[in-house]
Specification:
The complex is a heterodimer of chains A (230) and B (229).
Chain A (H helix, E strand, L loop, with lengths): L7 H34 L3 H15 L3 H11 L1 H11 L8 H27 L2 H9 L4 H31 L11 H12 L2 H30 L9
Helix pairs in contact in A: 1-2, 1-5, 1-8, 2-5, 3-5, 5-7, 6-7, 7-9, 8-9
Chain B lengths: L2 H40 L4 H16 L2 H9 L6 H5 L3 H4 L2 H27 L2 H9 L4 H31 L11 H12 L2 H29 L9
Helix pairs in contact in B: 1-2, 1-6, 1-8, 1-9, 1-10, 2-6, 3-6, 6-8, 7-8, 8-10, 9-10
Classes of the chains: A mainly alpha (230), B mainly alpha (229).
């Protein structure tokens, strides 16, 4: 067995932090992606422009740069906010900054996935809702969203795998997730290969778990649908 | 926003951008060469031919690039054999470590693109080539690959853009590429917003130029006309 020099529990705690970060960013990213897709498909021009700018801008800049920009770039902003609220000091924690940065990036890609899903729903469904006298929010909630989910799921699954690997970037701003904990263990043990390999295997394990979960979700979402032969 | 300072340090950012371009260009080209045999093997009917590239691809796609980078740059030094070997001057150098890791990383993704493209070539065309008396390797060279290149090109251009963004990670192993340059300038000026913003704009410009370049390439290869619709 591999000698972890007593860093096993620390790595485990880091893994938990990685999972928390991934789930928090996922929640934020799904909301942003949904809003982005609705903005991009709305008939209102400024909203279309806003959605388009968001997804293009965020997707064109490296994730690492977003993490750094949001963590170091908001210091002045938060100080201003603290002055305004009359508080001593206010700063974004590494976890919050990481969640915002990764959520932002996930949301930009999810915008395109959701947009594709919205466009894939037959127009007749919306018209049927209108003919039944449903209001626009109700059509969205009862007709569009439940169907979008099924179509968007494979795309979102891929994005989640990417998100999970991107959580490693947040170690750069000092959040004690799996990667950072491994770095600490390396400093103490002087065995970089061992610990980074263990970290790699944990990420691989998380990826496998996510793949299985997604497979189950996809099966549930597409129940009642015959899979077309590829 | 302090524009004067941005202009003052712009040459340093552009030097960084040059290194970024170098890293991306070398890794996506070397990655393509490495991925070609792997993608072909991955599309094979034989399980034993498929298994090894599959394991490679699974590892490199399932773990973060940052971990891979650290494994190569810091991890290799753990072994006495590596430190004594002739390759040590290269494996000690962050530049070569970044290129090696990025190449191996992107090769895994490109191999999957090649496999998808090869499998998307209509079987009728391959059968037609075989019926005309072409050998297996002739069919691969003259029919399957030219066709697969056109099918896979849009996905390859996506991968290049993703590598452009991934190259920012090279700054974590002390390379002064675009993100690294922004970080060193910020350490001197204490102006994070200005310089991360400037770096972001430069990334956007590079990505835009690359996308336009691939559009030209697609037109030159007549990708649309070759889809056979």
């Amino acid at each position: 067995m591999i000698d972890l020099h007593g860093f096993g529990p620390a790595l485990l705690a880091g893994t938990l932090m990685t999972i928390e970060l991934a789930l928090a960013s996922l929640a934020l990213g799904l909301v942003l992606g949904l809003l982005g897709a609705l903005a991009k498909t709305s008939p209102f021009k400024p909203l279309q422009w806003l959605g388009g700018t968001y997804s293009t801008l965020v997707r064109g800049v490296p994730e690492l740069l977003w993490v750094l920009l949001i963590y170091y770039g908001t210091v002045g902003l938060m100080r201003g906010l603290a002055d305004l609220l009359g508080m001593q000091s206010l700063e974004l924690s590494a976890f919050a900054a990481g969640t915002i940065a990764l959520g932002l990036c996930f949301g930009a890609y999810a915008t395109e996935v959701f947009r594709g899903a919205i466009l894939a729903i037959p127009k007749g469904h919306r018209e049927a809702g209108l003919a039944l006298g449903l209001s626009a929010p109700r059509i969205l909630w009862r007709l569009i969203l439940p169907q979008m989910w099924r179509i968007a799921l494979p795309g979102l699954g891929n994005l989640f795998m990417i998100l999970m690997k991107d959580t490693a970037l947040v170690s750069v701003i000092g959040l004690e997730e799996l990667m950072r904990r491994s770095q600490i263990a390396v400093t103490a043990s002087k065995e970089p290969f061992t610990f980074y390999m263990v970290a790699a295997m944990i990420y691989l394990g998380l990826t496998i778990i996510a793949m299985i979960g997604l497979h189950l979700l996809e099966r549930r979402a597409s129940r009642g649908f015959v899979r077309s032969a590829a | 926003m302090n524009w004067d300072v941005i202009v003052q340090y712009l040459p340093r950012l552009l030097d960084g951008a040059l290194l970024t371009l170098q890293l991306v260009a070398i890794s996506v080209l070397a990655g393509l060469i490495l991925a070609l045999p792997m993608g072909i093997a991955r599309a094979s009917q034989n399980f034993y031919v498929r298994a090894l590239p599959y394991a490679y691809i699974f590892f490199f796609r399932g773990t973060p690039l940052l971990v891979q980078l650290f494994l190569v740059y810091y991890g290799m030094a753990q072994f006495e054999v590596v430190r004594k070997s002739a390759l040590w001057p290269y494996l000690r150098d962050p530049y070569w470590c970044a290129i090696i890791t990025m190449t191996m990383h992107t090769a895994a993704y490109i191999a999957e693109i090649i496999r998808g493209a090869i499998q998307a070539v209509p079987p009728g065309e391959i059968e037609a080539a075989r019926a005309l008396g072409m050998s297996r390797s002739q069919t691969m060279l003259h029919v399957t690959l030219p066709r697969a290149i056109r099918i896979g090109l849009p996905a390859y251009s996506n991968e290049v853009i993703l590598m452009l963004k991934a190259s920012a990670l090279a700054s974590t192993i002390t390379l002064v590429e675009l993100t690294g340059a922004a970080r060193t300038v910020i350490a001197r000026t204490y102006l994070p917003v200005e310089f991360f913003f400037a770096a972001g704009v430069i990334y956007l410009i590079i990505a835009f130029v690359l996308v336009q370049g691939f559009k030209l390439l697609e037109r030159w290869l007549r990708v649309d006309a070759c889809q056979g619709r």
